[in-house]
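Course assignment 3, question 2. Fill in each field.
Student: A.L.
Task: Predict the tertiary structure for the chain below.
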Amino acid sequence: MDKFYAAVAGGFFMLLITPMIRPLSNKIEVISQRIYGINPVSINVERDPSIIWAGFPNWIGASVWLPSLPDDAPDDPTDWYSWAQKLGGADAHVTVLKVTVVSRGVSTVVVNPPKVRAESLPIGDPPKGLIATNPVGGAEIDPKRIHVNLPMGTAVWVNPDGDPIKALGLALSPGDVEQFHVYAVTQAGRYKWHLELPILIDGKREVVKVDDAGQEFLTYGMEGFGEYFWHDGVWKSRDAL
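Answer field:
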């Protein structure tokens, strides 16, 4: 019985002191990370739609700019970006990115809207190339995200309804993962761009350059181009619909 009471007393004692020890332990961990130069947070930016939308229903259409109309196209719209890239094409209307924040330790993270570095490029007169669209339909997938307006050079956090919201604030423990999307949009023109994403980690500001594997992103608007739809294995022009 003595052992039983000792175990109960020990458990009760630990229950009492744990709330006092945990903040001290977290503080020691943060200080150790600073002393040894360990970044408590890693950030990955994904731009391949087949990975961004993996696991989602096949409801998300795709539009790409192409220099000319090919004979065929992939049936899965999430494969259209890599297909268009091989043909010398680029995103049309919107470029979607997915940002993953992984915590190695205890950290507080605030993700502010990025600085937009966009350059307008000529599209020709009349515009060169065309827009190819896979018009897959279904329930709209509209996550909380950073909405980037390329012509205006602005960026703002918005909720699924498109309404502005405050910057994303995260309280992370070791192994925690948070994800969000970036939608960079233009209705017209052609833009070469990247983002400078300011992130506050435990009160220390870092600026993460968001680009396309060391290159600038390229996004076309839809206006002024002929548009062709991929439907039942054939191309149909907008004018023929």
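Instructor remarks: Residues 20-38 have pLDDT under 50 and may be disordered. The CA atoms of residues 64 and 91 lie 5 Å apart.
Grade: pending
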